Amino acid sequence: MATRKRRPGEKHGDLKAALLQAAGKRLEQDGPEKLSLRAVARLAGVSQTAPYNHFANREGLLAALAAQGFERLATNQAAAAQANDDPRIALECLGYEYTRFARGHPKLYRLMFGAGVGGEGWHDDELVTASKSRSFAPLRDVICRLLPEPVSPEQVDNGAMVCWAFVHGLSAMLIDGTLADRVESDDALAELSRQSIAIILDGVT
């Protein structure tokens, strides 16, 4: 059934939220490279010019979606970090939940790391970088608990970066199908994450 467009002067209860919701649906269908403001407006049932009330251009909408994705990941990672008092087990939980998030939302995950965006991606976008930093904080906290004292901020950052690089690469391989024959279930993903984190821990600690 076609989405009804609103008549001129008819107000939308929360236009920005509706646009982001519609954009999220289009993203899952089309991927970040093909997402357009026109398609989002059509799905939200508003005029073609309505998105410009909140987003300067397509990149602005994509940035808001990416930031929203990182906020969801931050919530995901914060819960995983608190799942166990043992930092080694907490780190395993972080790795598993991170890869599970990427596997469950592949197109959003790709957008979060710059797919469909030209130039330098999100490196200069304050909204996205702030959300990305919040999603990284739980990992940093667990690494701080894991490393023997005294530990410097640089050591914590380096340890967290090694872990992040590893699970990010693993997530990319899950998304592009490289590991399709090895990871066919959540149980298989959990075991692969556990083994991967064990390897990382040998190097980090």
Automatic annotation (TrEMBL):
SUPFAM superfamilies: Homeodomain-like, Tetracyclin repressor-like, C-terminal domain. Residues 36-55 bind DNA. Keywords: DNA-binding, Transcription, Transcription regulation. Residues 13-73 form the HTH tetR-type domain. InterPro entries: Homeodomain-like_sf, HTH-type_TetR-like_transc_reg, HTH_TetR, MT1864/Rv1816-like_C, Tet_transcr_reg_TetR-rel_C_sf. It holds the Pfam family TetR_C_33. GO terms for molecular function: DNA-binding transcription factor activity; transcription cis-regulatory region binding. This is TetR/AcrR family transcriptional regulator. It comes from Aquicoccus porphyridii. The lineage of its organism: Bacteria, Pseudomonadati, Pseudomonadota, Alphaproteobacteria, Rhodobacterales.
